[in-house]
Amino acid sequence: MTLISMFEDAVQQYGNKPALAHKPRGGTYQDISYTEFGASVDALRKGLNALGVQKGDRVAILSENRPEWAISDFGILKAGAVNVPMFSTLTAAQVGYILKDSGAKIICVSTEKQLEKCLAIRDEVPTLEQIIIFDAVEGETPEGVLEWTAVCEMAGEAVESDSQEDEVATIIYTSGTTGNPKGVMLTHANFISNVEACKSLIDVSETDVLLSFLPLSHVFERLGGHYVPLFSGAKVAYAESTFTVAQNMKDVAPTVMLSVPRLYETMHERILRAVEEGSPLRQKIFHWGVSVGSAVSSAIQQGKKPSAILQLKQGIADKLVFSKLKAATGGRLRFFVSGGAALPQSIAEFFHAAGILILEGYGLTETSPVISMNHPEKWKFGTVGVSVPGVEVQIAEDGEILTRGPHVMKGYFNNASATAEVIDEDGWFHTGDIGIIDEDGFVKITDRKKNIIVLSNGKNVAPQPIESALVQSPFISQIMVIGSERKNLAALIVPNFDALKAWAADNSIDTDDLSAMLQTREVQQHIQSEIRSRLTDFADFEQVRRFTLLEKEFSQEEDEMTPTLKLKRNVIMERYSDVIEGMYPEDS
Questions:
Q1: Which residues pair with 20 in a beta bridge?
Q2: In Å, how far are 67, 218, 239, 382 from 212, measured between CA atoms?
């Protein structure tokens, strides 16, 4: 079985049912049936073969989520080639590195903006023969560039790919938080084992609709928001952009949706801010509703049925408090799925109190990606679930999570030494994450092994739980805890500017000059109080003693975050080295 045979089975089985949906600028969502999807894939396959694509060639994709991305994925595979996806946010230099390292023969790009990146580095990539652009080009088409429609109309004779399940289907480059990105080789069998494991735990069917907005170039969305639904007869609707997700949820009314924790944190922040701006009566009703929902959630987590009185209160709370939140998701949501980073337990508990279940999972690009997951029949907040069928998980002596099974990558492309560093002779993949497995088999992650902070007194500190606790403050948007080889911890903090300005105004502090406001004694003391109150359950050596309030957010544009919104700690440490040294004057 291969990804192509599974796709063809889906086209045959679901025919005229909608497979994809997109929203043209200024228009409304339009459906593409499985039959139409299959025909488009065949047309692209013929076009690629006409361009000389042969078995094993690498064909890259540089695009936002849209129907052409999905068509390109299957068209490339059906032509016998290997798909090399890239984040649309990459710079020209980053695109050039991946094209050269993978030896890509062709690249498919979405817009003229993406085309410009490729033209800028084309001469540096000797293997690159052709660029295919999805959108029509304004003016004269540059040499070596073909429009998507022209390629799909080529009458080249299709070459049967006859792919085998153990052959490489894709090379996905890691986000490169440290050093150059590495190309992860995933086979058809890797993906299929993961698809079947996930489908056995979560019921996805042709009645489901997913809203896709996480990058399809990331393995989490590729597996959970692309292969799983499309091989189950569901419909995948693409968000117009990351900025329109809230509106698109109302447009599409998804039944299932995947996201990284930041979306849920942002939704939570906005809800709390709206409550704070409301009347005292509205605030009182909201907090009462949350307390009722929390009681219901607690009973369910303990395997108990809520009492009749509690169920009655829940109905009232749902109508008065939580109905608007559910309406904002489109009103049909069965559950959210969270991955890519740690989901704060308090966020999962809040949404469950509101009647919305967030299922957190865990995996890496190198594991196709799912290692463990919570699912509707078995979940526990604060964990990343139990290992999925066919996957082995164990904890090494130093606390590192190891995994083995059909989901583990074939290796890093052209990098045998790096492969040997992470896959041992017994086939165990070393994840680089520190964690435990509890008595019920649930995996709990403490932190990344490389992120562990070793203080000058020898104490080991995992920054992730501290950061997760502090980011729950309505006044803290982003945070990075530091302190390696120092006496104590410090933090770079990006405030929630709107919330902090509102608090400052209420306390008669001038907010016109942001820099001056952040340095006032009152604001500094307020943030220090927030830190102390949220770290009461942490040990003395885990307390954040010093901090600096930054005037702008960490961002992808500044290369401070990966496309999945993980902090690039090394980049931030270097960029703010003077600020960090200023927090440790005794070490200067």
A1: 32, 236
A2: 11, 12, 6, 25
pLDDT tens for 563-580 read 778 888 989 999 999 999
Dihedral sign (CA 74, 76, 77, 82): negative
Percent helix, percent strand, percent coil in the chain, to nearest 5: 40, 20, 40
CATH number of 452-587, picked from 3.10.105.10, 3.90.550.10, 3.30.300.30, 3.30.300.20 = 3.30.300.30
In whole angstroms, give the CA distance from residue 318 to residue 299: 17
**Burial tier of 279 (Cβ tally within 10 Å: 0-12, 13-18, 19+):** exposed
Instruction: Name the segment(s) of the chain with CATH classification 3.30.300.30.
Output: 452-587
pLDDT in tens, 188-212: 999 999 999 999 999 999 999 999 9
Q: Do residues 338 and 315 touch, judged by C-beta distance below 8 A? A: no
> What number of other Cβ atoms are within 10 A of residue 493's Cβ?
24
- What is the fold, at CATH topology level, of the domain defined by 1-17+30-163? Rossmann fold (3.40.50)
3-state SS assignment for residue 472 = coil
pTM score, two decimals? 0.86
**338 Rama class: left (phi>0) / alpha (psi -120 to 50) / beta:** beta
CB 36 within 8 A of CB 70: no
Query: pLDDT, tens digit, for every residue of 337-383?
Result: 999 888 989 999 999 999 999 999 999 999 999 999 999 999 999 99
CB 374 within 8 A of CB 385: yes
